[in-house]
């Protein structure tokens, strides 16, 4: 039996340890003995302290794999006998099994076979110094691996990929395909059909009916066909998901042989030197060797949402707690850094967790609805089956003993199940999803999660980021304020070369040094404007601006960076402290660039054109703010630049260590150098896309971090705000939102709002209600927290919200939204958080996605509406009339199945290909709670309108044939029961059987042809068929006629091929019974046109609410 040790990991305080033991007791439900203080005095040994980090290391590893609880359960058997308190023995590895106990650890020895645990305990790459790490991984922390060596290591060790294959997962999936959906009902039905052939078919001296055996075989074919289509749908979905890697290049910035270049993540190897920055995902497990304000979000591993500040040196013995490691899949939220790859693929923490725990997929809402419908259909089928069985046992077997044999009642019960279940539904649903996913993919809309297809059609609000989404994300400098004078870019360029351009040159220097953008070395030979730049849009625009006046690289080479605080969406500024490499005189300069109003507030002086410094007076400050708002009003992003020469006596470069975490340097009292106004032109497709959204009842709001004047100007350019500035209210504080704003409903539609981000946390429920009553809203100077709050408040008011964005700061809102939409050219963090990726980064693609979402929902309803009448209701009626009214069965089980899986399949698939109705994008978004896929209106249309019409018309044809050709009037067939046998109306049993088989075939043919009228009618909900002709370009669907032709051919084969005649008792029918149903189809088509006309004439009356 294993021995367990309880050891104190605090400071030996008896009371604390006693509380910890009681906590352990609560976990294990085991009474623990009283332990004297002396027992704890022996545990705080040097050897324990030396190994405590090693043990904590595995605690967290085990916790991340969610197996600690299982270990506790296994160990509780031994703990029932008591706990042995003894000095810990660290000669062998020990594995803590109670990671959640803060004071007490219950330790179990590791077995020799636990190789994975031994590997985890051996991890020490966070502890070794950089020199040892370079030796171990044969790399260099400055220049990285040699290129040839990296390629050889890739060949030897394989790619940086996580393998998630599992044999059991595949087996479970296959079983789900075969027995899932209708399979669990069809399996017993198929088995019973075969048993009805033998041995049940031989009971009571009966002759086995070969059609029962054929029916069982057909049911098995249906089962495996549905399983194939389910598997095919999964395969197609997998192909789309796998294409994310191909369509969204997953690259990492790698330094090899001293050269920085982008490399596919899968090609990373141990020892590679990788650079990561804000907005990126960590491509492998890295040991940090350099960092500047680097922060990482480890929530994907730990659940903790607060970003962690990274360091170069170890901060904790536990490799999951130390801050000098970055783990694959985590997100960089701030700063920039470099790290050496210490684990790749399945050897990373993410790889081990993925391998150990398989994530169970969630059922999508639309699948829940379909499952609900399947459950409903199965329950009805079972109820009818039970009713038939009770009727047979209690009534028919007694009153009409020869009416049904045991084999016949089994087939009847089986037939009732088959009749209620539209067996072709799974095939149609699978193909619908696959087709819509492919169609959207071809339109550059990559759907990562299937539920999004359903949700897209119900979006009624879009909260869109500005930069990179509504605009081109290509910043260029338009205007400059320098030395208290305003210049256009061309004027600034001409004046720069003059002798008195001191302030000009200082502004260019700040723009070049306080900037994270860099040119790609591979494009150094190209003209400046054609060179590739690595960095965000603003920094890129300012880099290109500064480069026009001299080499920025040459300027940067003259300085050493002492401290950098990268730009982030909360501070809205960037800071860089530099010192000259030559003649520094132990001095340094602080440079800052950021949002103009923030920079202006932090300055106490201004640099004039000749380089002289004057105090920042209120008058100068107002002039600067006025110019900033003028630029912003023209849709330009305005950034301020400032500097401060730090006192070398207080901040000596050779002795003082600048700390970005503690900020041990001034953030105010700077000298204002100038303003730079950049323009990011709107995308050409955005205004028309927003207009289409408005027509579709979708409200578009802008949510941006820009200045409120800039945001409002861009919002007007793209059509989010249509009102003049005189009708636009600038919400500076919550007091501005008064009750008078919403008293006049008419005025709300003629008013726009611009709301500043700092106001968001101060808004109460009433204020949010008043704001969201307006149609034109622009949110400015927002932080990620503000964006998240905006989305939540909209959702709280039952809005279905889509959020568009491309930056890491958009990720929280993208994840919270009903549909997160990321730009393909945006950050990896944004793409990961989103449910949809627009591959071409065009806002108009989201409109195409919404339209396809609506089409998918509409077409799926049409498929259901087409399948249910003939494949369900019209098949139930012959069974009910046969059991309870004694009418010979009007439709055989075989023909029922043929309708579901043969003649109805191609027409239903043709409906999947239907294009949008002309008014689809002018309708209000559907209500997720109000308009379900299968609702009472659809049941009313399918069963009580179409179903009754098809059943009645088919029975009329059935009775007409029996009356004219068999000489048996319909009234005599009613309550015929066991009278329908040899001698009935002077006919032999063979003659009666022949006429019954012909009548059943006529019933079948009538259903097939009348369904064509249903097919043409179901194409539209409100529009007339003649308003949506299948020949026109915008509504073309020639596949309809191909599908009808295929159905007729299949019906002809079933009716005339001898095999089906002999085995399944189909019969050729008189020729007129192929043409009379056309009249029924036209009559149904005309009746449905009347229904649509009523719906159009009285759109808000009760009639429309009744119609589907």
UniProtKB/TrEMBL annotation:
Primary residence: membrane
Pfam family, one: E1-E2_ATPase
GO biological process: intracellular potassium ion homeostasis; intracellular sodium ion homeostasis; potassium ion import across plasma membrane; proton transmembrane transport; sodium ion export across plasma membrane
Subcellular location: Cell membrane
Transmembrane segments: 174-195, 215-232, 370-394, 400-421, 863-885, 891-912, 958-977, 997-1017, 1038-1059, 1071-1087
Classification via SUPFAM superfamilies: Calcium ATPase, transduction domain A, Calcium ATPase, transmembrane domain M, HAD-like, Metal cation-transporting ATPase, ATP-binding domain N
GO molecular function annotation: ATP binding; ATP hydrolysis activity; P-type sodium:potassium-exchanging transporter activity
UniProt keyword list: ATP-binding, Cell membrane, Magnesium, Membrane, Nucleotide-binding, Phosphoprotein, Translocase, Transmembrane, Transmembrane helix
Membrane topology: Multi-pass membrane protein
Domain of life the protein comes from: Eukaryota
InterPro entries hit by this protein: ATPase_P-typ_cation-transptr_C, ATPase_P-typ_cation-transptr_N, ATPase_P-typ_cyto_dom_N, ATPase_P-typ_P_site, ATPase_P-typ_TM_dom_sf, ATPase_P-typ_transduc_dom_A_sf, ATPase_P-type_domA, Cation_transp_ATPase_P-type
GO cellular component terms given for this protein: plasma membrane
Domain Cation-transporting P-type ATPase N-terminal, residue spans: 124-198
Keyword Methyltransferase appears in the UniProt entry: no
Protein name listed in UniProt: Sodium/potassium-transporting ATPase subunit alpha
The species this protein was found in: Acrasis kona
């Amino acid at each position: 039996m294993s021995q367990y040790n309880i050891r104190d990991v605090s400071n030996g305080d008896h009371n604390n340890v006693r509380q910890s033991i009681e906590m352990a007791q609560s976990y294990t439900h085991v009474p623990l003995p009283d332990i004297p203080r002396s027992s704890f005095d022996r545990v705080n040994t040097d050897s324990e302290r030396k190994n405590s980090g090693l043990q904590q290391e595995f605690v967290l590893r085990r916790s991340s794999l969610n197996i600690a609880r299982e270990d506790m359960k296994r160990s509780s058997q031994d703990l029932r006998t008591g706990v042995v308190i003894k000095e810990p023995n660290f000669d062998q590895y020990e594995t803590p099994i109670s990671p959640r106990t803060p004071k007490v650890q219950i330790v179990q020895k590791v077995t020799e076979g636990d190789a994975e645990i031994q590997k985890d305990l051996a991890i020490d790459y966070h502890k070794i110094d950089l020199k040892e790490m370079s030796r171990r991984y044969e790399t260099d922390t400055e220049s990285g691996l040699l290129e040839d060596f990296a390629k050889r290591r890739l060949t030897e060790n394989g790619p940086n990929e996580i393998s998630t294959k599992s044999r059991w997962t595949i087996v479970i999936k296959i079983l789900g395909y075969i027995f899932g959906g209708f399979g669990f009902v069809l399996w017993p039905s198929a088995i019973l059909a075969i048993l009805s052939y033998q041995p049940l078919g031989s009971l009571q001296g009966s002759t086995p009916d070969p059609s029962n055996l054929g029916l069982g075989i057909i049911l098995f074919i249906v089962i495996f066909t549905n399983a194939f289509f389910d598997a095919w749908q999964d395969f197609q979905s997998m192909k789309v998901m796998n294409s994310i890697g191909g369509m969204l290049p997953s690259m990492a910035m790698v330094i090899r042989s001293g050269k920085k270049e982008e490399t596919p993540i899968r090609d990373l190897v141990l020892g590679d030197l990788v650079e990561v920055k804000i907005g990126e995902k960590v491509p492998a497990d890295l040991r940090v060797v350099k960092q500047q304000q680097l922060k990482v979000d480890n929530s994907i591993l730990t659940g903790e949402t607060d970003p962690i500040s990274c360091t170069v040196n170890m901060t904790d013995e536990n490799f999951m707690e130390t801050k000098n490691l970055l783990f694959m899949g985590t997100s960089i939220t701030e700063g920039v850094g470099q790290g050496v790859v210490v684990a790749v693929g399945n050897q990373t923490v993410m790889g081990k967790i993925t391998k150990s725990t398989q994530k169970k997929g969630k059922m999508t809402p639309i699948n829940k609805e379909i499952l609900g419908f399947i459950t409903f259909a199965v329950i009805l089928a079972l109820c009818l089956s039970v009713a038939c069985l009770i009727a047979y046992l209690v009534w028919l077997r007694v009153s009409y003993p020869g009416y049904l044999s045991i084999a016949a009642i089994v087939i009847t019960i089986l037939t009732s199940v088959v009749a209620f279940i539209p067996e072709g539904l799974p095939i149609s649903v699978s193909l619908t999803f696959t087709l819509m996913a492919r169609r959207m993919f071809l339109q550059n809309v990559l759907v990562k999660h299937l539920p999004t297809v359903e949700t897209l059609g119900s979006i009624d609000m879009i909260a869109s980021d500005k930069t990179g989404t509504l605009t081109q994300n290509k910043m260029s400098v338009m205007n400059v304020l320098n030395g208290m004078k305003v210049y256009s870019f061309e004027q600034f360029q001409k004046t720069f070369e003059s002798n008195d351009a001191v302030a000009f040159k200082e502004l260019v220097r700040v723009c070049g040094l306080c900037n994270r953008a860099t040119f790609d070395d591979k494009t150094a030979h190209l003209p400046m404007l054609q060179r590739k730049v690595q960095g965000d849009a603003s920094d890129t625009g300012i880099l290109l601006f500064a480069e026009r006046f001299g080499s920025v690289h040459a300027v940067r080479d003259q300085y050493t960076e002492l401290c950098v605080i990268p730009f982030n969406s909360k501070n809205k500024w960037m800071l860089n402290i530099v010192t000259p490499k030559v003649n520094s005189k132990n001095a340094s300069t602080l440079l800052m660039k950021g949002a103009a109003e923030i920079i202006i507030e932090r300055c106490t002086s201004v640099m004039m054109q000749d380089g002289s410094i004057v105090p920042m007076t209120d008058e100068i400050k107002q002039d600067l703010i006025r110019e900033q708002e003028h630029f912003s009003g023209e849709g330009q992003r305005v950034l301020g630049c400032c500097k401060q020469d730090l006192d070398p006596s207080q901040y000596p470069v050779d002795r003082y260590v600048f700390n970005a975490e503690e900020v041990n340097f001034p953030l105010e009292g700077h000298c204002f150098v100038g303003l730079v106004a950049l323009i990011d032109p709107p995308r050409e497709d955005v205004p028309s896309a927003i207009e289409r959204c408005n027509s579709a009842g979708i409200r578009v709001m802008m949510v941006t971090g820009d200045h409120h004047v800039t945001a409002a100007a861009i919002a007007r350019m793209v059509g989010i705000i249509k009102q003049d500035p005189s009708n636009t209210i600038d919400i500076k504080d919550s007091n501005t939102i008064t009750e008078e704003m919403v008293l006049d409903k008419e005025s709300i539609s003629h008013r726009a709002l611009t709301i500043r981000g700092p106001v968001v946390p101060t808004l109460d429920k009433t204020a949010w209600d008043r704001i969201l009553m307006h149609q034109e809203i622009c949110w400015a100077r927002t932080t990620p927290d503000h964006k998240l709050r905006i989305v939540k408040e909209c959702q709280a008011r039952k809005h279905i919200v889509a959020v568009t964005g491309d930056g890491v700061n958009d990720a929280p809102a993208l994840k919270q939204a009903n549909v997160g939409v990321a730009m393909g050219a945006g950050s990896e963090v944004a793409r990961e958080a989103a449910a949809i990726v627009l591959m071409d980064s065009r806002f108009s693609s989201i409109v195409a996605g919404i339209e396809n979402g609506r089409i998918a929902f509409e077409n799926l309803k049409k498929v259901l509406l087409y399948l249910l009448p003939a494949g369900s209701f019209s098949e139930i009626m012959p069974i009910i009339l046969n059991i309870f009214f004694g009418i010979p069965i009007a439709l055989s089980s075989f023909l029922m199945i043929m309708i579901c899986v043969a003649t109805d399949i191609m027409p239903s698939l043709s409906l999947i290909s239907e294009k949008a109705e002309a008014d689809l994008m002018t309708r209000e978004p559907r209500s997720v709670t109000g308009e379900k896929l299968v609702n009472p209106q659809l049941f009313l249309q399918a069963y009580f309108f179409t179903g009754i019409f098809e059943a009645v018309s088919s029975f009329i044809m059935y009775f007409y044939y029996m009356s004219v050709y068999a000489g048996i009037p319909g009234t005599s067939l009613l309550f015929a029961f066991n009278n329908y046998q040899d001698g009935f109306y002077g006919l032999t049993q063979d003659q009666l059987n022949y006429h019954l088989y012909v009548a059943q075939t006529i019933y079948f043919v009538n259903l097939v042809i009348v369904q064509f009228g249903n097919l043409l009618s179901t194409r539209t909900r409100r529009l007339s068929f003649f308003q949506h002709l299948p020949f026109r370009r915008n509504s073309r669907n020639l596949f309809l006629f191909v599908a009808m032709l295929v159905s007729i051919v299949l019906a002809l084969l079933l009716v005339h091929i001898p095999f089906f005649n002999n085995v399944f008792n189909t019969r050729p029918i008189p020729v007129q019974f192929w043409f009379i149903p056309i009249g029924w189809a036209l009559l149904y088509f005309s009746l449905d046109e009347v229904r649509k006309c009523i719906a159009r004439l009285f759109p808000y009356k009760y009639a429309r609410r009744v119609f589907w």
